[in-house]
Specification:
heterodimer; A: alpha+beta; Rossmann fold; OB fold (Dihydrolipoamide Acetyltransferase, E2P); 2 domains; six-stranded mixed beta sheet; six-stranded antiparallel beta sheet; 25% helix; elongated; B: mainly alpha; MetI-like fold; 14 helices; 0% strand; ATP-binding (chain A); membrane (chain A); ATP binding (chain A)
Chain lengths: 371, 271
């Protein structure tokens, strides 16, 4: 098994602006590591640099403590799954899976053995003689996975492998890939732009934006303590509600977007530097419903989405749209003033200029598990 | 598409008339090849149909030798073009080197130079090499083909880059990738180019005329011309019989190629 180590990895094309800026990162053995970011953030480029398909402009890349900067892809002992699967259209499923082994000159019997083992695992036994075009999207995806598995490379790279699948299939493939990785003990580097995939699959996540690392950590860390505004709005669905705020120390009040007037606690005030201009964020589930009596605020609903098991309601707040997600079914009319409760302990405070986190929300939504 | 019946009839009538007009010379040649000389010269309708013209064509001229020569030359040119064009196209698509695109445009620009302009230098070269009256002299000058490279390059470009990348990770070299992936995937274009190359060289006239001096290597097109001029009185029936025989491989290849072409086209890309 292998780890991957990157020191000051930088990438630029034709000496132009850097696509990736001094990435420092260590991916542990057997870890499911997710690179997530919007398109154009450089995540695929980084993955392709690990694979050896893209030159490294600057910095050192090590796999298993060996510098691989100039090692061709085939000598890096890894496998890769592509977004469009990259199956050879003229070959049968079997040939596609075994293709890499033939190139690596693995013996015929060994090939047979691995083929049977892998196809059993992936449930592809009945499709061995078919051509890729005769398969559904999910089956093609599985063939691409099988091709990676059969190589028995300890490192597996995946470049948005699920983005061509429909939502239901994607959910089941997520579980499948995750189980496969654990079972085989693979070191997995997984690129996606979908934060749900990142949250559900990753042992650790790295959020990339404009070629720079925003935050590295496990999913819950990223959710509870986003390092900056970008991570805060990128991780979580619906996204974190964000608004500019002004702190009135004399009265102990926090005024958000000139509309919401929130009681600020002592600890909150002491955490915020004196001259800071701040932005607050609050998770959709922390804007809780209140009865008319104990409500701290009333907000005007502008859109209601009733999903059956939960309801998403959008409120307008001085040009910003804030959404809340409440379990169960709520009968709320558009235009209604809805009573809500906002506590300053649920607010995450960011510095408006740098976007950095000043203070994380103090309360997290724990499940009902006895501690 | 639906259209009114009247319009449909008009269209079909026009199409049939123009098809007949275009096909008339071929049809005439075909009928004349079975007619006796007397009928042809009097311009009457055929009174009797005979195979004499064909027998005569084969007995008085080395038509068989011409045919063999033509087949050999055309097949050689076709294969040479396929091999060289596909290798060049592969380099232009999958290998990265400095000035690749500029080189490609210069390469393509040679399509603008008409063949006739290069006839004299080509002739000098094969004469100096001693290739006059040889298959090499007839074929080698046509191996490098800008059009074929262009056609295949466009086709290779539709092959997803990920296929090459996947093969790189699997540890496959360029040549193996070319043979096992690019060639089979681009089968359709290869067949198209092959048919095109074969027919063009089959119908070639000027170059074989220059590069050959005897019947041993002469191609069938030159042979046809000779039929016309060797006799005092042209035996049109014999000439037409020869022409019909010459057309057969062309038609055969077109029919076969077409079938293969359709099969190749329906294979389609994967997405």
């Amino acid at each position: 098994m292998k780890n991957i180590e990157m020191t000051d990895i930088t990438k630029s094309y034709d000496k132009q602006k850097n696509v990736l800026n001094e990435i420092n990162l260590t991916i542990g053995e057997g870890e499911f590591f997710v690179l997530v970011g919007p398109s154009g953030s450089g995540k695929s480029t980084l993955l392709r640099m690990i694979a050896g398909l893209e030159d490294i402009t600057d910095g050192i890349m090590k796999i298993d403590d060996r510098v691989v900067n100039h090692l061709p892809p085939k000598d890096r002992d890894l496998s890769m799954v592509f977004q469009n699967y990259a199956l050879y259209p003229h070959m049968s499923v079997e040939q596609n899976i075994l293709f890499g082994l033939q190139a690596k000159k693995v013996g015929k019997e060994e090939q047979r053995r691995r083929l049977i083992e892998t196809t059993d695992m992936m449930g592809l036994g009945d499709y061995l003689k078919r051509k890729p075009r005769e398969l559904s999207g999910g089956q093609r995806q599985r063939v691409a996975l099988a091709r990676a598995v059969v190589s028995q490379a300890p490192v597996c790279l995946m470049d948005e492998p699920l983005s061509n699948l429909d939502a239901k299939l994607r959910a089941s493939m997520r579980v499948e890939i995750r189980r496969l990785q654990k079972r085989l003990g693979l070191t997995m580097v997984y690129v996606t732009h979908d934060q749900v995939e990142a949250m559900t699959m990753g042992d650790r996540i790295m959020v990339l934006h404009d070629g720079s690392i925003q935050q590295v950590g496990n999913p819950i860390e990223l959710y509870n303590e986003p390092a900056n505004l970008f991570v805060a709005s990128f991780i979580g669905s619906p996204k974190m509600n964000i608004g500019k705020a002004v702190l009135n120390r004399a009265e102990g009040r926090l005024i958000v977007e000139d509309e919401l007037n929130i009681n600020a606690s002592e600890s909150l005030m002491s955490d915020i530097p004196n001259d800071a201009s701040i932005t607050v964020g609050i998770r959709a589930e922390h804007l809780t419903y209140a009865t008319k009596e104990d409500a701290t605020h009333f907000m005007e609903a502008v859109n209601v989405e009733n999903l059956g098991n939960e309801t998403t309601i959008a409120f307008e707040l001085n040009n910003e749209i804030w959404t809340v997600k409440w379990p169960g079914q709520w009968e709320i009319e558009v235009g209604e003033m809805v009573p809500v409760k906002i506590s300053c302990e649920d607010l995450a405070i960011f510095d408006t200029g740098s976007g950095r986190l000043i203070r994380a929300a103090k309360r997290v939504s724990k499940g009902a598990v006895p501690v | 598409m639906t259209m009114p019946l009247g319009q449909k009839i008009t269209f079909y009538v026009l199409l049939i008339v123009s098809a007949l007009l275009i096909f008339a010379p071929t049809l005439m040649a075909f009928v004349m090849s079975f007619m006796s000389n007397k009928d042809i010269l009097t311009g009457s309708m055929p009174t009797s149909l005979t195979l004499d013209n064909y027998r005569q064509a084969f007995s008085t001229f080395p038509l068989m030798q011409y045919l063999i020569n033509s087949v050999v030359v055309s097949v050689l040119i076709m294969l040479g073009q396929l091999v060289l064009s596909s290798l060049a196209a592969y380099a232009f698509v999958f290998l990265e080197f400095k000035g690749r695109d500029i080189l490609f445009y210069i390469f393509i620009a040679t399509m603008m130079v008409p063949f006739e302009a290069s006839v004299i230098p080509n002739f000098h070269i094969i004469r100096d090499l001693g290739w006059i009256d040889s298959y090499a002299g007839l074929t080698v000058p046509f191996f490098a083909m800008a059009f074929g490279t262009f056609l295949l390059r466009q086709n290779f470009k539709t092959i997803p880059k990920e296929l090459r990348e996947a093969s790189l990770i699997a540890g496959m070299g360029d040549f193996k990738f070319y043979l096992t992936v690019v060639m089979p995937v681009a089968k359709t274009s290869l067949v198209t180019l092959g048919v095109y190359g074969f027919l063009t060289s089959w119908n070639m006239y000027l170059w074989p005329l220059l590069a050959t001096t005897n019947d041993n290597v002469r191609t069938v097109q030159i042979g046809l011309k000779q039929m016309q001029t060797q006799e005092q009185l042209n035996q049109w029936g014999v000439i037409m019989a020869g022409a019909v025989i010459v057309i057969i491989p062309t038609l055969l290849l077109l029919f076969l190629g077409q079938k293969k072409l359709q099969k190749g086209l329906t294979e389609g890309a994967l997405k």
